[in-house]
């Protein structure tokens, strides 16, 4: 009886030991898993634009490995950023596009490059990079070695001056990729825009608010951009109503800088007309719906030469809410 108890005790101790090892092993695997965050952003003409975006990501470095890829769905900078994260042992990458709208060929090309679309939805955008090379995906995503190909131009020239097509192919990665939504009509956007308005507002009932975005070239995309801005406007109305006040009117529109001349002129006249007509019976506050300051907002001002309106030029960044947006996006993505 005594020997039996000793034997049983040894078995129990051994099982406890195995359980402890298993728990420690699971804990080790969990704690050793590295998660990366890849921020995608347009990039500005001035270094200050890029610096402003990077400053919004600093706080994330306390929890994740972070890289920023600038460009309009640029496969070169995106592949380089993914490579850096994977070389640091990252097994999961949450890609957060810091773009104003989902309705854009930039977003659709990002989806294709990251494997969320089988085919390109739009003509491939031309890409240029200092090295003159980019990377193409070979086979499935398990092949991590990248193969350089001349810039992702649809057409290039060889030594014989013959045209040669270059296909835009998907990126290579071994990590699991999560892709989050752009800013769109997220509440953080409405709250920041509302703050920008209040900095200029004096008599809300006599003020017309214009929320002005850059906008796309495509007509259907542009309709969706405007609908998204309208949703932001609705949130601002609700925020203002909580104060027991109302603005006279809130309009959302795009200036469509890169569209053809006819569309460009129509957008310009629409903006000028709204500012002029609204200013006859009250004040006009114009707020740019842009990620960061870096030159584009100057085009808004140029369009409005000779008109009376209030303007601070402040964009979404810098603002801590954008950091909150990134954090929230990452956590929501990792739940899936």
Please name the defining characteristics of this protein.
2 domains; 18% strand; 4-stranded parallel β-sheet; Rossmann fold; 3-stranded parallel β-sheet; 336 residues; 9 helices; 42% helix
Give an overview of the whole structure.
By secondary structure, the chain is α/β, with parallel strands linked by helices. The chain has 2 domains: 33-183 and 321-335, Rossmann fold, CATH 3.40.50.1400; 187-315, Rossmann fold (3-Layer(aba) Sandwich), CATH 3.40.50. It has 9 helices and 11 strands. The chain is globular and about 60 Å long.
Entry summary:
The protein is α/β, with parallel strands linked by helices. 42% of the residues lie in helices and 18% in strands.
Which CATH first-tier class of the largest domain would you pick?
Alpha Beta
Assign an overall shape: globular
Total number of distinct structural domains: 2
| DSSP helix fraction | 40-55%
* Rg from Cα: 26 Å
What fraction of the residues are assigned to beta strands by DSSP? 15-25%
Would you list the SSEs in sequence order as H and E? HEHEHEHEEEEEHEHEHEHH
Q: State the CATH topology of the largest domain.
A: Rossmann fold
Number of strands: 11
Report how far the terminal alpha carbons are from each other.
Answer: 54 Å
Please identify, by name, the CATH architecture of the largest domain: 3-Layer(aba) Sandwich
Mean pLDDT: 83
- Uncertain parts: 1-7, 9-14, 16-31, 128-164
């Amino acid at each position: 009886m005594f020997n039996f108890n000793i034997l049983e005790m040894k078995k129990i101790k051994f099982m406890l030991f195995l359980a402890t090892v298993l728990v420690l092993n699971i804990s080790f695997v969990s704690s050793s898993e590295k998660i990366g965050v890849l921020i995608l952003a347009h990039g500005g003409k001035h270094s200050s634009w890029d610096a402003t975006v990077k400053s919004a990501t600093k706080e994330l470095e306390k929890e994740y490995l972070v890289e920023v890829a600038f460009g309009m769905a640029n496969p070169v900078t995106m592949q380089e950023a993914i490579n850096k994260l994977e070389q640091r042992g990252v097994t999961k990458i949450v890609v957060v596009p810091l773009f104003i709208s989902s309705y854009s060929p930039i977003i659709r090309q990002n989806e294709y490059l990251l494997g969320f679309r089988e085919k390109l939805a739009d003509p491939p955008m031309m890409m240029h990079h200092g090295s003159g090379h980019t990377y193409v995906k070979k086979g499935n995503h398990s092949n991590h070695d990248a193969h350089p190909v001349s810039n992702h131009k649809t057409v290039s020239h060889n030594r014989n001056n013959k045209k040669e097509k270059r296909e835009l192919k998907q990126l290579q990665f071994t990590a699991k990729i999560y892709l989050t939504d752009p800013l769109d009509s997220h509440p953080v956007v409405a709250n920041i825009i509302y703050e920008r308005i209040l900095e200029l507002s004096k008599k809300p009932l006599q003020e017309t608010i214009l929320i002005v975005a850059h906008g796309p070239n495509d007509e259907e995309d542009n309709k969706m951009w405007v609908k998204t801005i309208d949703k932001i406007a609705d949130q601002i109305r609700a925020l203002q109503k909580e104060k027991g006040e109302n603005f006279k009117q809130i309009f959302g529109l795009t200036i469509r800088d890169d569209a053809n001349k006819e569309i460009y002129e129509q957008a310009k006249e629409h903006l000028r007309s709204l500012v002029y007509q609204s200013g006859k019976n009250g004040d006009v506050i114009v707020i740019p719906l842009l990620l960061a300051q870096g030159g584009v907002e100057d085009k808004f001002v140029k369009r409005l030469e000779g008109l009376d309106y209030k303007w601070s030029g402040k964009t979404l960044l810098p603002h801590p809410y954008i950091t909150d947006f990134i954090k929230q996006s990452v956590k929501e993505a990792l739940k899936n």
